[in-house]
Specification:
The structure holds two protein chains of two kinds. Helix content of chain A is 8%, strand content 33%. Chain A is built from one helix and eleven strands. Chain A starts with a helix and ends with a strand. Helix content of chain B is 26%, strand content 32%. The relative contact order of chain B is 0.14. Classes of the chains: A mainly beta, B alpha+beta.
């Protein structure tokens, strides 16, 4: 497994939006080092290790210096017109309000801005992810009860 | 009359479906940080994954609207903030001989029996949460007898009946004290306080995930609050959501 240009671009966007000063990322035999201040200042290093294969299972305990986040390649292809809704944190993805309820949304369904799309649970905090735009759900990027990674694409909504 | 921490507003209600639902409705209508819902009874109280939470008159049901202005990834730490606050409050209300512990992530056990549950809900636009509801149910005057785990209530363990107002006041005092500490110092002191009261740490547990059960040793709670489970083969797995069942050692 190696990193594509698009994946590196996405990683740099995440780092840019964070407080992280330095990143060392190892994927298979590829190593990516990012230093915000040109390496002139000694700062704590955040190290992320991407698993060799995506899995529905919980990631193993990272090293003490690692962040909790494990990035996963999205199974959803990029869309020129669609709006991607990404996971704001690592957590368990639920498509239904409770196991006995129907799913919030299905592929092909029309949604209004603000409609609930899913829940993500972390330590008994249930966060409702809402549609940021109106449109049609063209793709769903995770299965019900799957562990999702921070920034993983969960839904794509295309203009109706 | 309930004495409240600075910045809190109390909404006292009789019977509601769920205090979390009431708080959510008010949060969506603009309720400010520190809005506290207190109901005498819930007709549709719920716990994790929509499970019913027995909610007769005589127990405490309260939900607090918070607007922490933090990323969603950090907001889950409020789960531990609430657990530590409630554990401390119950420790002050009950005889010193009682053992108050936290079962990951935020159930409160008294002498090993579940006495309180906490459920949080949030919503947000993108990375930041707009609001977090901290919902809390405490068995004060009674506890359900049909649970698949040991349960108890405060009055069963107290020499004299404890008023709901006393539990609410003390919980809110501790909740906002710990929240302010979390704002100022981050998760570290909260994690330390939680670990001091951790139920089953170092012992055998079963974690029930949506599609499987995993047995192992409760090794640690990491810096983000996730449970670290050591498997029989020595590997460690990081758990961010699931039901934990404590097992007897040996």
């Amino acid at each position: 497994m190696s990193l594509s240009y698009k994946e590196i671009s996405e990683i740099l966007k995440i780092i840019d939006a964070s407080n992280c000063e330095e990143l060392v990322l190892e994927v298979g035999d590829t190593k990516l080092v990012v230093q915000r201040n040109g390496g002139g200042v000694q700062t704590p290093i955040t190290k992320m290790v991407i698993p060799e294969a995506t899995s529905n299972e919980q990631p193993e305990t990272p090293p003490v210096t690692a962040t909790s986040d494990t990035l996963a390649a999205s199974p959803i292809a990029a869309s020129a017109e669609g709006t991607e809704i990404r996971a704001p944190m690592v957590g368990t993805f639920y498509r239904k309000p409770s196991p006995t309820d129907p799913a919030f949304v299905e592929e092909g369904q029309t949604v209004a801005k603000g409609d609930p799309l899913c829940l993500i649970e972390v330590m008994k905090l249930y966060t409702t992810i809402e549609a940021p735009v109106a449109g049609v759900v063209s793709a769903i990027g995770a299965a019900d009860t799957e562990l999702v990674a921070h920034n993983q694409v969960l839904f794509v909504i295309e203009p109706s | 009359m309930v004495s409240l921490p600075d910045g809190c507003t109390l909404v006292e209600l009789g019977s509601v479906g769920s205090t979390n639902d009431e708080a959510r409705t008010r949060a969506l209508s603009g309720a400010v940080d520190g809005t506290v819902i207190w109901a005498r009874e819930q007709t549709a109280g719920r716990g994790r994954r929509g499970r019913a939470w027995s909610s007769p008159v005589g127990n405490l049901y309260t939900s607090t609207v918070m607007r922490p202005g933090r990323p969603a990834a950090e907001a889950s730490q409020l789960s531990l903030v609430a657990a530590v606050a409630l554990a401390e409050a119950l420790a002050e209300l009950l005889p010193k001989s009682t053992e108050i512990s936290c079962k990951w992530p935020n159930d409160i056990l008294v002498n090993g029996a579940k006495t309180a549950g906490i459920l949080l809900e949030s919503s947000g636009d993108g990375e930041m949460v707009s609001w977090v509801i901290v919902g809390c149910g405490v068995n004060v005057g009674s506890h359900p007898s049909d649970t698949n785990y040991a349960a108890t209530d405060l009055n069963a363990l107290s020499k004299s009946p404890i008023a709901l107002e006393s539990v609410l006041e003390l919980f809110l005092e501790k909740l906002f004290m710990w929240r302010n500490r979390w704002f100022a110092e981050g998760i570290a002191p909260v994690r330390c306080a939680w670990i001091e009261r951790a139920a089953g740490l170092g012992g055998p547990i079963v974690v029930r995930l949506p599609n499987q059960e995993i047995s192992g040793c409760f090794k640690d709670m990491d810096v983000d609050g996730a449970l670290v489970l050591e498997l029989p083969n020595g590997e460690c797995r990081r758990i961010t959501a699931g039901d934990v069942f404590l097992q007897k050692a040996g």
